[in-house]
């Protein structure tokens, strides 16, 4: 399960948090970010910054 | 002015010494297995695509426990000149087939290979060497490959005597085709097979347009419960001969490792240990959004790293806080992360005038 991280001052989505608390920045060369995108493609659950489940595949298409 | 021109210099026993101009010639980081930031010498069960000793990745493609890795497992005497080794112990029995893949591997950053000229007509020859030891005897295998896993060169080597250190060396003509990164992404995989199925095994001694990780017919360590495979002194260098191992100063080797992984804990302390030593402590206040904000700095990483916070008691994902005599724990979130610093929010509750927060962190920018 992943949860988006939102900068509380700019409301910018800057990364994603894993279920064990690791915070992955949206850097294309970060291998955890690459794994996150693969997991989304494989159907992993994604929550927005408020904890609502959102469409991971649709979000992935926004990232690509 | 006179000049001295020689191809190589031998030591008194005939061994080849490094060319005078060659500094930092070993492209492998932590080849002497000295640095173990994550586990501090403790044993870890291999899961797929996770790291054990610094820079060394465990590949275990089949779900379940098949091997463990530990710095100096079994406490045997390392080869002369070394104090540490990476020790693999099989803890199960599996008959590998198809796409099964059990390896120890290192991914070398493209920046550190750019001078090899691979993928061009000027590709340089390299030599990979290491000290290996196993409870098994026979022909073992490994490979090097590119990041896309569409170019690879399987190799084999012999361990003729059980439980005895053997020095191995493999010379590989540079690949004149294929894509080999010369930037901050993976430039090369160096694989040591522990049991690899036919899909990822190829003919030793030849380039192939495939992602092989070992040589066909190689001994399977994970095929025998209790079997061991130890390795140290891994060196990958330009040239046709293995030169003496380039033993770097500890601080230099640690700094090289910290481009990919760094922690707040003492070097001798494993991640998640219950300890205040090294825990970051910051005083401040919380704002209306309920967060206390902490700057986190680290040595420059390969990329913006994945950051994880830990309670002083060891649990990941939270930090401790104190506010007006009350202790608690709050979720820690890192954002606006660059390759050298990040900003952490700890959820302590809104509008506290004085709080202080503390905990540990790790930063991972592994390949």
Task: Give the SSE map.
The complex is a heterodimer of chains A (64) and B (367).
Chain A: E1 2-6, E2 13-18, E3 23-25, H1 31-41, E4 46-47, E5 53-54, H2 56-63
Parallel strand pairs in A: 1-4
Antiparallel strand pairs in A: 1-2, 2-3, 4-5
Chain B: E1 9-10, E2 16-17, E3 44-45, E4 50-51, E5 57-60, E6 67-71, E7 86-90, E8 101-109, E9 126-134, E10 138-145, E11 152-159, E12 166-172, E13 186-196, E14 201-202, E15 214-215, E16 228-238, H1 250-258, E17 261-263, E18 280-284, E19 291-297, E20 306-310, E21 318-323, E22 326-335, E23 341-347, E24 355-364
Parallel strand pairs in B: 14-15
Antiparallel strand pairs in B: 1-2, 3-6, 4-5, 5-8, 6-7, 7-16, 8-13, 9-12, 9-16, 10-11, 10-13, 17-24, 18-24, 19-23, 20-24, 21-22, 21-24, 22-23
Question: How would you characterize the overall build of this protein?
Answer:
Chain A is α+β, with helices and mostly antiparallel strands. Chain A is 30% helix and 28% strand. Chain A has helices at 31-41, 56-63, and strands spanning 2-6, 13-18, 23-25, 46-47, 53-54. A five-stranded mixed β-sheet of chain A has the order 3-2-1-4-5, covered by helices on one side. In chain B, strand 4 and strand 5 (57-60) form a beta hairpin. The longest helix of chain B has 9 residues, at 250-258. Helices cover 2% and strands 39% of the residues of chain B. By secondary structure, chain B is mainly β. The chains are: A alpha+beta (64), B mainly beta (367). The A-B interface holds A 5-8, 14-15, 17, 20-25, 27, 29-32 and B 184-185, 289, 291, 302-309, 316-318, 331-337, 345, 364-367.
């Amino acid at each position: 399960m992943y949860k988006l991280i939102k900068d509380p001052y700019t409301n910018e989505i800057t990364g994603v948090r894993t279920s064990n608390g690791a915070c992955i920045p949206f850097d294309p060369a970060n291998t955890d970010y690459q794994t996150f995108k693969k997991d989304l493609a494989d159907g992993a659950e994604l929550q927005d910054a408020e904890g609502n489940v959102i469409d991971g595949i649709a979000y992935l298409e926004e990232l690509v | 002015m006179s000049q001295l021109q020689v191809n190589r210099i031998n030591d008194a026993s005939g061994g080849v010494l490094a060319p005078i101009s060659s500094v930092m010639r070993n492209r492998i980081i932590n080849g002497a297995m000295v640095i173990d930031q994550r586990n501090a010498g403790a044993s870890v069960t291999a899961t797929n695509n996770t790291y054990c000793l610094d820079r060394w990745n465990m590949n275990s493609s089949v779900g379940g426990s098949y091997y463990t890795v530990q710095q100096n497992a079994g406490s045997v005497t390392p080869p002369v000149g070394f104090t540490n080794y990476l020790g693999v112990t099989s803890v199960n029995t599996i008959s590998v087939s198809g796409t099964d893949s059990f390896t120890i591997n290192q991914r070398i950053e493209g920046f550190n290979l750019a001078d090899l000229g691979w993928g061009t007509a000027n590709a340089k020859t390299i030599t990979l060497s290491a000290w290996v030891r196993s409870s098994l005897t026979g022909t073992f295998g490994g490979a090097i490959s590119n990041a896309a896993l569409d170019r690879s060169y399987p190799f084999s080597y012999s361990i003729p005597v059980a439980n005895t250190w053997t020095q191995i060396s493999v010379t590989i003509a540079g690949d004149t085709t294929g894509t080999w990164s010369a930037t901050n992404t993976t430039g090369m995989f160096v694989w040591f097979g522990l049991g690899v199925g036919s899909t990822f095994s190829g003919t030793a001694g030849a380039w192939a347009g495939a992602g092989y990780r070992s040589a066909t017919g190689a001994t399977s360590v994970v095929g025998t419960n209790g079997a061991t495979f130890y390795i140290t002194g891994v060196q990958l260098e330009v040239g046709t001969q293995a030169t003496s191992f380039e033993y770097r100063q500890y601080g230099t080797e640690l700094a090289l490792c910290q481009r990919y992984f760094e922690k707040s804990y003492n070097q001798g302390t494993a991640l998640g240990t219950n300890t205040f030593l090294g825990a970051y402590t910051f005083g401040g206040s919380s704002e209306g959004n309920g967060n206390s904000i902490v700057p986190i700095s680290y040595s420059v990483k390969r990329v913006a790293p994945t950051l994880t916070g830990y309670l002083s008691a060891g649990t990941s994902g939270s930090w401790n806080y104190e506010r007006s005599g009350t202790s608690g724990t709050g979720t820690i979130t890192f954002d606006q992360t660059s390759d050298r610093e990040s900003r952490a929010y700890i959820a302590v509750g809104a509008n506290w005038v004085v709080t202080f927060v503390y905990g540990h962190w790790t930063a991972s920018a592994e390949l």
